[in-house]
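pinging the channel bc i need a second pair of eyes. not urgent but kinda urgent?? the chain im working w is below, pasted from the shared doc
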Amino acid sequence: MAWPTLAELVSNFAPILHLDKDEVNLPSSTDWYIGQVGYQAAGGIYSGPGQWNWGTAEQSSPDDYLVAPQAIWASLMKGYIPTATSYVHVLPVDDRTDMVDLQYWLFYPYNGQETFEVTGWTGSTGQALMPLSIHWGDWECVTVRVNIDQQVVGVFFSQHSGGQWCSPNDGFLSLSGTHPNVYVASGSHANYPAASNSTYEIGGVDVWDVRFAVADYARGGGPTVNLSAPNPPVVIQNDAQAILPTPVTSPPWLAFRGRWGQPIEPTLTDAEIGSLVAAAASGMQLNVLVEDAVQYVAGSTTLQAWLSEVILPIAKGTPIASSVSLVPVALATMPGSQILCIGMGNPLPPAMRAWSLNQGKWSSAKSPTMSPFGGLAACATPSGGLALLGLGKTSLLAFISPEGSGGPWSAAGLWPAPPATTGASIGQFNGAWYIAWGGADGSIQYLSTTDWVHFGSPQRVMLPSVDGPVPATIAGGALVAPAVESCGGALVIVAPIAGLEKGMPMVLGAYVSSDGSNWTGPNLLPSMSLCSDTSGALAGGPNGTLYCFYADSNKKVRYAVTSDGADWSDSGTIAGAFTSRTPSVVPWQGGFLVVHPGKSSPTVYWNSATFE
């Protein structure tokens, strides 16, 4: 088959939005919104509605923003569905010519409130609106991957700072003909593949037998917006012209680098958190003991403060960037105690992104000028540059930059690149850097370097047995890398292994070597509930201890500790941290900096002070 015209293609697969029955902040076109707002330049010059144009805004600072006049706030917040349309970015899928991604960008003038939820052990639930995520100018995205046979291959639903992919065969995605059905959460405008009368939990915590959480409601029952008509999609950029050779004129606002509304910094005090608990619980049918427990939490200043630490990062988030990686990210401690985070930004296809943490604040850093690859690992080199490793199509790749994340990049001396099926990790032992990965034969492999110029030959982790040495193997997919670090005078590699019996889930096993050559193990970590297709991340702790962070089957970020790599203790979970991917970790300010790629919650970092 041949591709249709670009206009036909984006119209044929435009999503159908099903808004929640309680939604009051509706979508609109950008033109409807822009025509009613002012422009605030970072230099202090303000231009009212109708007094500015994009010829000026194209030269804008990232600190510029649009201004909604207070006199029409109520009208602007409601949006205007008769103008609602989608703005489409067309992208190739790798180097394929039989598939494209259609990113449908959706504009809402105002992002409303999320829901604070209290659930008792009987299942009775109470809710209260939580005014922490409100902001002007809310952009959401639905990506539809289609093939040349005019079939939907998959759909990506943006959700807060992350999202999820669904395929037509996974039982979640529904289509009306060729149009994906999208269920939009009330207030937050997160997109989900199915309606649900129960909540989509963003994150929460249990106190006694009561669950306190931040949640989305995407029940449908509100207005339906067909993005194929009456306002057809507007193609704003075509990066797949080799497949669909149709030139596109981008709208002038695409070059705007500022905010789509005036900044809002909503806050909640500890006492207001207590009031939210009380308000949510007032609608519940609770037995006396649970009601007393909830009211005690609502009135306890100690528990209010603790809930603030748990709930506020979930609701408001401390995002690294406006879009969060869906694949593992790499952390590196650079000169001057700067933390560098490198990952794959959304929307897909991913592009390399970098962020820098200085004095507790994240900011964009110079992005790696190279093609993206998966399973990332990074570290500072002796010269103060950056080493970046990852998984290519079939091999482990390594590159060195003398200028941190930006380049220029040169290939490290791993050539010929070792065959690999997973990404890599980096740890230090006896003055050398050790790199560990999963080989093409399923074995755990490693090599070392002292200068990032000369590299040892790849070796396999070999274990003694009655029939002679056998290689240790790794379970999981391409994004599951073994973790490597030193502890107690030994080199430790932690990797997922198959369940001990048929049908049992994967567990984490630790392999220990006192000389970097002879190994014992696996020593099982307390991770019998390891989340599927994840691994662990290692970092040295106080007094020579070693910490391993991983996602359990409840998608909570859990951590274990050892002093010798052989005996591990389960030390608990990180409050409010939920992920279905492997976290990344580096020592930081006497504790740890833990970054995880969130699926339904923002990518957030925690210090050890917030560990449970």
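so The first strand starts at residue 16 and ends at 20. and The longest helix spans residues 301-315. — does that match what u expected or am i reading it wrong
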